[in-house]
């Protein structure tokens, strides 16, 4: 039976979050930090209830024959719930992003002008089967003085609701005023129409951040009346130069592809410069094959695979443009670094690219020429993550430039207002 929802009820909830956000923004950082501490404690205290809800979602996902990668993103364990709580603790420990002054200057007429950090307002988060997004987004928004409207995917509905219920109980036990405790909103409907309606509430929501697959991003971009900060896909590249250390290459290549293949910062294409042929290609193909990776190979790398009796599929332009989100990888041997950069320009999604090299000029060229939001040297693409980069947690990874680019942490959830101090000046 098709689930229905009440548009007016959702509208009123979003307006309530906006009212709460105004109160939240007026609280000192110590009160917001106390609320975060209680949220993390409540998540830990409700671990069993959250796991039970997650089991219901997992059973439904298996019944619907969803992919292993999807189920991996959906699955919660005691360890993952502890990681969610620890991420809230990390956010709480960060400096308050609200209220500080970015810069200040004096005008010739004696006016003092400054730019002060303020919250964006209310953030709408629309996401798929990643229950940790629920706690990460709520923590980041609360710390930065923003309200949040959470719309998780229907496949994670029970898990997300259990996480939100736990966090709200934490808020009520904290020093946060009652009026501000409604700053975490959750769309309690699986109906697709609820998402469509949420995207029309421009009087209550200031920005939409979608997190999910290409279909979700396209849907949000097509229907939203609210500004959208998005990333379309994570077609991430790993480039291996012949000068790179052999042990480093094998370790990083395997980590970038196999450590958690179903996430957006996993490598999807491996590019070897031609001077890496005799050093790295054979060794990497063997290691990837042993790890169970399905290989899409160019003609040059395919010839090496055949000599090693390694199974492969011929690579195509479609493969090079694909975000596999699984144990699949495209491989291509290119002439040099410039050819690798050209390949990234053509097939990349401006998410994350890495270069493995011991050649300093190559390093500088890669950093300067690659246009993606995160560029890494001699490190796995899996580090393209707010928590790994010291942001505490991330609310998403933006591959647009308005107003943030790359992993979005606390500062990216604020903007600035002008403060002007005068002594009676008038404009002539």
TrEMBL record:
<dbReference type="InterPro" id="IPR012134">
    <property type="entry name" value="Glu-5-SA_DH"/>
</dbReference>
<protein>
    <recommendedName>
        <fullName>Gamma-glutamyl phosphate reductase</fullName>
        <ecNumber>1.2.1.41</ecNumber>
    </recommendedName>
</protein>
<dbReference type="InterPro" id="IPR016161">
    <property type="entry name" value="Ald_DH/histidinol_DH"/>
</dbReference>
<keyword id="KW-0641">Proline biosynthesis</keyword>
<comment type="similarity">
    <text>Belongs to the gamma-glutamyl phosphate reductase family.</text>
</comment>
<keyword id="KW-0963">Cytoplasm</keyword>
<dbReference type="InterPro" id="IPR016163">
    <property type="entry name" value="Ald_DH_C"/>
</dbReference>
<comment type="function">
    <text>Catalyzes the NADPH-dependent reduction of L-glutamate 5-phosphate into L-glutamate 5-semialdehyde and phosphate. The product spontaneously undergoes cyclization to form 1-pyrroline-5-carboxylate.</text>
</comment>
<dbReference type="GO" id="GO:0055129">
    <property type="term" value="P:L-proline biosynthetic process"/>
</dbReference>
<feature type="domain" description="Aldehyde dehydrogenase">
    <location>
        <begin position="18"/>
        <end position="291"/>
    </location>
</feature>
<keyword id="KW-0028">Amino-acid biosynthesis</keyword>
<dbReference type="InterPro" id="IPR000965">
    <property type="entry name" value="GPR_dom"/>
</dbReference>
<dbReference type="Pfam" id="PF00171">
    <property type="entry name" value="Aldedh"/>
</dbReference>
<dbReference type="InterPro" id="IPR015590">
    <property type="entry name" value="Aldehyde_DH_dom"/>
</dbReference>
<dbReference type="GO" id="GO:0004350">
    <property type="term" value="F:glutamate-5-semialdehyde dehydrogenase activity"/>
</dbReference>
<dbReference type="GO" id="GO:0050661">
    <property type="term" value="F:NADP binding"/>
</dbReference>
<keyword id="KW-0560">Oxidoreductase</keyword>
<dbReference type="GO" id="GO:0005737">
    <property type="term" value="C:cytoplasm"/>
</dbReference>
<dbReference type="InterPro" id="IPR016162">
    <property type="entry name" value="Ald_DH_N"/>
</dbReference>
<keyword id="KW-0521">NADP</keyword>
<comment type="pathway">
    <text>Amino-acid biosynthesis; L-proline biosynthesis; L-glutamate 5-semialdehyde from L-glutamate: step 2/2.</text>
</comment>
């Amino acid at each position: 039976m098709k689930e229905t929802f009440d548009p007016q009820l959702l509208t009123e909830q979003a307006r309530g979050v906006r009212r709460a956000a105004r109160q939240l923004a007026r609280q000192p950082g110590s009160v917001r930090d106390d609320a975060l501490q209680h949220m993390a404690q409540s998540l830990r205290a409700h671990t069993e209830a959250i796991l039970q809800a997650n089991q219901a979602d997992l059973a439904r996902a298996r019944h619907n024959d969803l992919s292993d990668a999807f189920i991996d993103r959906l699955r919660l364990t005691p360890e993952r719930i502890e990681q969610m709580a620890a991420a809230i603790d990390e956010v709480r420990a960060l400096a308050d992003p609200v209220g500080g002054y970015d810069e200040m200057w004096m005008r010739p007429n004696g006016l003092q002008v400054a730019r002060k950090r303020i919250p964006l307002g209310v953030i709408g988060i629309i996401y798929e089967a990643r229950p940790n997004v629920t706690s990460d987004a709520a923590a980041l928004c609360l710390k930065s003085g923003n309200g949040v409207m959470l719309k998780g995917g229907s496949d994670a509905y029970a898990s997300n609701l259990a996480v939100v219920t736990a966090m709200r109980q934490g808020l009520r036990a904290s020093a946060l005023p009652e009026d501000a405790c409604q700053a975490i909103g959750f769309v309690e409907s699986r109906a697709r129409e609820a998402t469509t309606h949420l995207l029309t509430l421009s009087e209550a929501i200031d920005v939409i951040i979608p997190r999910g697959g290409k279909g979700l991003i396209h849907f949000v971009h097509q229907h939203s009346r609210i500004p959208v900060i998005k990333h379309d896909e994570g077609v991430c590249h790993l480039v291996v130069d012949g000068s790179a250390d052999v042990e480093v290459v094998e370790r990083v290549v395997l980590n970038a592809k196999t450590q958690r293949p179903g996430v957006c910062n996993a490598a999807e294409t491996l590019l070897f410069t031609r001077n890496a042929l005799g050093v790295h290609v054979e060794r990497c193909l063997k290691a990837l094959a042993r790890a169970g990776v399905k290989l899409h190979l160019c003609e040059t790398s395919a010839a090496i695979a055949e000599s090693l009796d390694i199974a492969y599929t011929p690579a195509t332009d479609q493969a090079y443009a694909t975000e596999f989100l699984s144990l699949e990888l495209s491989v291509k041997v290119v002439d040099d670094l410039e050819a690798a950069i050209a390949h990234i320009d053509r097939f990349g999604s401006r998410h994350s690219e890495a270069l493995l090299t011991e050649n300093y000029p190559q390093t500088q060229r890669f950093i300067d020429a690659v246009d993606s939001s995160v560029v890494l040297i001699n490190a796995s693409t899996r580090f393209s993550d707010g928590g790994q980069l010291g942001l505490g947690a991330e609310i998403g990874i933006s591959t647009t430039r308005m107003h943030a680019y790359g992993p979005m942490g606390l500062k990216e959830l604020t903007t600035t207002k002008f403060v002007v101090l005068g002594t009676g000046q008038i404009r002539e």
